[in-house]
Structures are given as C-alpha cells and as structure tokens.
Amino acid sequence: MASTPLLSPSTTTVAPNRTSSSLTHQLFHLSSKVPFHTFPAKNHRLITKLNVSSPANKPVTSPTSKKPIEEIIFFDGGAHYGDLAANLLLGFTLLWLPLTLAAIPRAFYLRYRFTNLRVTVISGLTGQDRSDFSYKVIKDVQVVPRFIGEWGDVVITLNDGTKVDLRSVPKFREIAEYCLSMAENPAVLKEDSTGPRGF
Asked: Does 67 have pLDDT greater than 80?
C-alpha cells in the first residue's frame, strides 16, 4: 500500500500567505483605478426672513385701546298712562273711537329712550321696529302740551328736514330741554303758544 506524501508545515503556510498577499495586491490595484469624484464645498449660510408689517419710513406704534363711552339713560318709558285712560273714557262715543284704538297700541307697544348718546324709538309687538338718531343731527325741538299739560308731544326736526313726532311723552318739557342741551347747535325750546291741545 502506497503512502501519500505528507506536506511539511512550511509548505502549508506559504500557500495561504501568497493567496492573501495576491488578494491584497489586487485590491490595491483595483482601488487605484476607481475614479474619485470631488464635489465643490458648499457655503452654508443661515437665512433669516423678516416679516415687516409697516413701511420702513413709518415707526411701528402700538395701538392704544380707547375706553368705550358709557351710555347713561336719561329717560326710558312709554306713553303717559293718562293718554290711554282719557281715550278709553271718551271711547264710548263713536266719534272718539278711532283715537281710542290708536291710543291702545301706543300705550303697550311704544317706548322712548333718551340717553347721553342717542334718541331711540321702539315700536311693534316684539319691539322689532327701532329707530335711532344722534343728538348731532337735531336741528330744532318743539313741544305741544296735551290735556292740561300733564303730557305732551315732542316734535324733533332733524338737519335733513325730517320731523320725528313723539306722541304722549311724559315729562315732555324736561326731555325736550335735554335734547336741545345735547344738540351741537342748541336752540331755544319752542312751545305751542295756543296752550294744551286735546289728548
């Protein structure tokens, strides 16, 4: 039986060393052929955006909060109760019946409000009809006393010629004087010189 020749330890270690050195040499040879791309260096800058809400030549000023003017009520009420009572008594006559029917809704659904800012007239079943005007547009005020002067009508003339007739107003003289004092061009209160008229 023929015996296989044994390899010496020196021959067994040489072959792997040659293989590893040849592989390393081939890797270096291949890496030298691979082209390297060089990229230009970018200059990174911080960009800050400013939002300017006003022109550059105008200084920015903080808005000043104005206090709202408090509305003070001088008079708030409806027609004088004497107007309704007198018209109901005279309503039994057929001649006075139309005036009585007009006095009933005036007593229940009509309100006058005089404040330091405006005059307000509220009417309608639910108060949906409302008209306001400022004292600045008042041109003239006249009063017409009713009955024995317990109540009266206040006729306000505006700058555009419109006449606002407020019927059966209690304290009508005081209210008319207040309206004239609040107007821009106060005038003398005009009262009907013929005296009280009807109801």
From this structure: no
Name the percent of the chain in helix, strand, coil, to the closest 5.
30, 25, 45
Q: Any bridge partners for residue 191, and if so which?
A: 143
**Helical ranges in the chain per DSSP H:** 9-33, 81-90, 97-109, 172-182
| Residue carrying the six token digits 């006095």 | 103
Closest to 160 measured CA to CA, from 187, 180, 142, 134: 134
pLDDT in tens, 107-143: 899 999 999 999 999 998 887 899 999 999 999 999 9
Separation of alpha carbons 173 and 11, rounded Å: 137
Closest CA to 123 of 142, 146, 107, 144: 107
pTM for this prediction: 0.60
